[in-house]
Amino acid sequence: MNDQNKLSLFLKQLKEHDLPGFDAHVELTPYRTSITPPIAPAKQAREGSVAVIVNWHTKPVLVLTRRAAYDGTHGGQISFPGGKMEDGDADRMDAALRETHEETGIALNRDTFVAALTPIYIPPSNFMVYPFLFFTQQQLSYTPNHEVDYVVEFPLEELMNDSNFSKTDIKLGNGVILKNAPCFLFGNEIIWGATAAMLNELKWIIRKM
Fold this sequence. Notes:
The structure is a single chain. This protein has helices at residues 3-12, 22-25, 92-104, 156-160, 193-207; strands at 46-56, 60-67, 78-79, 82-84, 113-116, 120-122, 127-136, 148-155, 165-171, 177-186, 189-192. It is α+β, with helices and mostly antiparallel strands and 209 residues long. The strands form two sheets. Strands 1, 2, 3, 4, 5, 6, 7 and 8 form an eight-stranded mixed β-sheet that branches.
């Protein structure tokens, strides 16, 4: 069995296993200061969904986006394609699929769905985010919309390379400096916050292979 098939089979088996969840998240989340997972207010937190896409056409990459700069909480940051649910969405996964297509031009279908990863609460924007993992082998092309500056293909081998883990100061949109934020470095990109935390869960999962 080649590595491509091995990864595909392994990811498909995720539904049968427990996820590392908070233990993986906390390593890469600067906002968490205690060992107790923060609980989002069920009626107050907004809901959003993201697509965690592992694409293996020529080599395994994760599809990320650099958000367009704006005055909001997450402007200019590296993120997964996704966003908040809308009235027309059938469910949370539908929101992830719709947002991914709108933001990047990628048309995924439910046949590429692997498993739901652990939801994560983002205090600064008061969002409970639900990540959905997809695996595809098609050649992807990107047509970013106005919400996205560009698409980033983050090689899976770079995620698994521990030398790409670092800590750095992050300047937030409101001018506040976040000191020694844990992150992944890739080229000129700094991947931090909830995106890095969700990536770290995937990293923990793949390490079990």
